[in-house]
Amino acid sequence: MVQERSLPSLSIPQTTITREQGLMLYEDMVLGRIFEDKCAEMYYRGRMFGFVHLYTGQEAVSTGVIKAMRPDDYVCSTYRDHVHALSAGVPAREVMAELFGKATGCSKGRGGSMHLFSAKHHLLGGFAFVAEGIPVATGAAFQTMYRRQVMGDAKADQVTACFFGDGASNNGQFFECLNMAALWKLPILFVVENNKWAIGMAHERASSETEIYKKAKVFGMVGEEVDGMDVLAVRTVAEAAIARARAGEGPTLIEALTYRFRGHSLADPDELRSKEEKEFWLKRDPIKKLGAYLVEQELATNEDLRAIEQKVQAIVDDAVAFAEESPEPKPEELYDYIFAEE
Amino acid sequence: MFNALRAAIDEEMERDPTVFVLGEDVGHYGGSYKVTKDLYKKYGELRLLDTPIAENSFTGMAIGAAMTGLRPIVEGMNMGFLLLAFNQIANNAGMLRYTSGGNFKIPIVIRGPGGVGRQLGAEHSQRLEAYFQAVPGLKIVACSTPYNAKGLLKSAIRDPNPVLFFEHVLLYNLKEDLPEEEYLLPLNKAEIVRSGEDVTILTYSRMRHHVLQAVKTLEKEGYDPEVIDLISLKPLDFETIGASIRKTHRVLIVEECMKTGGIGAELSASIMERYFDELDAPVIRLSSQDIPTPYNGTLENLTIVQPPQIVAAVQKLVQGQV
Ligand SMILES: Cc1ncc(C[n+]2csc(CCOP(=O)(O)OP(=O)(O)O)c2C)c(N)n1
Ligand SMILES: [Mg+2]
Q1: Deepest of A91, A186, B269, B280, by most Cβ within 10 A of its Cβ?
Q2: Are the CB atoms for A114 and A53 separated by under 8 Å?
Q3: Cis (ω within 30 of 0) for the bond into B235?
Q4: C-alpha span between B94 and B103 (Å, rounded)
């Protein structure tokens, strides 16, 4: 048995969720799962190119945090961004079309897998360089605080969720932004998805203090450790952090312990992670866990869950058909979007 | 000139509550060259935001604020420090609008003192415009007089795109009476400083003043050069440049940046592509040396272009000796 860090069990009692909420969370996670499975298939069939990083296994983090937020809150992601985009409400069609490089993609085919954006859904990106999204998300949070305090806009209470990995948490931008966010009490959640690996670099080989949430303390910030395979635990921690942020009480660092079920990207042979480690985490599949909970609590039946899976499968199939049929960007529009006119 | 820049910022902050300044010592201290002196007293600490010394992160933060509707002005205490922010400037300020397929606008001004000062040593005497010019999506502007500094900075603040705005450490104390009434200057127009017939001298920033010194000598000798201050280093104003070349058929470039991969390199290649048939002589470049700026005063003077070199180059060009 590999020595795994013990997953925290939530000391706060889990908030009881309604049937609707339970099914909504389940659907969002299943969407993340089936969408990514389809991406792998399309990649191997030569429909999408480049570096494609799948989120499989980590769904509870995206769903747990983003589905606790409002649609006008901001989300900032990394290159592993498909599922954050979906949770934030970007239609599967637009994400798939972007991966196909089509003009109908959320970034008009200019971005690709690692550069998903949607101003409409307050998705700030899609950042392909490790940790570079952290300052941008901090800026969005600063903007909200500025509108409220400088411009007297009482409605400016949006919260920003900034997702990144364990590897990114060793980068200077992480520390610099924690400092500034705490200093100015910015309404932001720094969500570290600790999946134990940064490509082939094991977290304990990269970080002198492996428990990332503890790094909040030196900035006078709340740091929370949460089981990232348990969507309800993530949601509970996120709700508290969001409430604090909205109330002007400042940022939170959330470390979600999670695991990616696939290689780093679709180009990764995934040779370094042990079989034992993979098995340990595969047993904790967050979707199975929520499904079992919903059935056990009699919030849903197995038929309800199968119906959701079928519905999502249809959404993903439709997204692929849409992407296939969509036009390529026009060559004469090569220079569009360099500069804004007004 | 620092007062002109300060007035530009003050007027734009007064006019638009989304405009704010951030950077090291821009608030209480008033900026290392006094460009934001006492503005925090008028606008408060959030609009003159003193940041920790974390260039890449506060520049990225400004980009995030710009994407979500504010108009930040980032002050690089010295533009050289923004090498630490190169990633945010290149990847996010420059390219994000494009990679997002037009989802986001990034109305940000990144400004501060650049160029070779007096014996500041290599790291504080950078010629960064050459490094940044290849980044797609950035506008690069260099001001050179109090008058153009004010009008250009106001336009840069209102522009919906990222503008890198170079001031020059040795020009902050220039004095000039400015118009009472408000004025804006276009970011994409070169300034014809002196019109003439013999040769087109293309220059910018502090070198404009070296050129003008040289021109005094040249005038006495009967030469009639046309002097163009590029103002916009990216994109280049080929309308103005082209019209001048069609008139003079000779080009001298005088720049402070390094010769290799510099603004002049780009200019010279573009002129060759566009106006080869118009040229009566090869384009001549006077650039600073491809070395780290030395501390020693004599060596430093040898590193950047001096007026006598400009005089000599014009004489040779016009006499057909090249
Ligand atoms: C600045 C930068 N350096 C290196 C890379 C190459 N790279 C891509 S992902 C990655 C590992 C990041 O790991 P982590 O932050 O834990 O996120 P995860 O991939 O596990 O989600 C590296 C080194 C990059 N994209 N950007
Ligand atoms: Mg990781």
Answers
A1: A186
A2: yes
A3: yes
A4: 14
Regions of chain B where pLDDT drops below 70: none
pLDDT digits (tens, 9 = 90+) for B112-151: 999 999 999 999 999 999 999 999 999 999 999 999 999 9
Q: Structural domains in chain B?
A: 2-171 (3.40.50.970), 191-318 (3.40.50.920)
Enter the pTM of the model.
Answer: 0.96
Exposed, middle or buried by CB within 10 Å (0-12, 13-18, 19+), for B180?
A: exposed
* Residue A62 alpha carbon to ligand 2 centre in Å: 15
**Beta A201-202 vs A197-198: how paired, if at all?**
antiparallel
Which of A150, A180, A340 shows the shortest C-beta gap to B97?
Answer: A340
Task: Please confirm, yes or no, whether B55 is among the known catalytic residues.
Answer: yes
Q: Which ligand is nearest to the CA of A262?
A: 1
Strands A252-257 and A160-165: unpaired
* Crossing angle for the helix pair A19-44 and A92-99, to the nearest 10 degrees: 20
Q: Given ligand 1 and candidates A191, A199, A212, which is best to mutate, with the most ligand atoms within 8 Å of its CB?
A: A199
Reading the block at residue A69, the tokens are 């937020």
Q: What confidence score (pLDDT) does residue A11 get?
A: 55
Asked if pLDDT for residue A6 goes beyond 90, the answer is no
User: Cβ A117–B51 below 8 Å, yes or no?
Assistant: no
Q: Quick one: fold of A19-264+281-323? A: Rossmann fold (3.40.50)
ipTM: 0.95
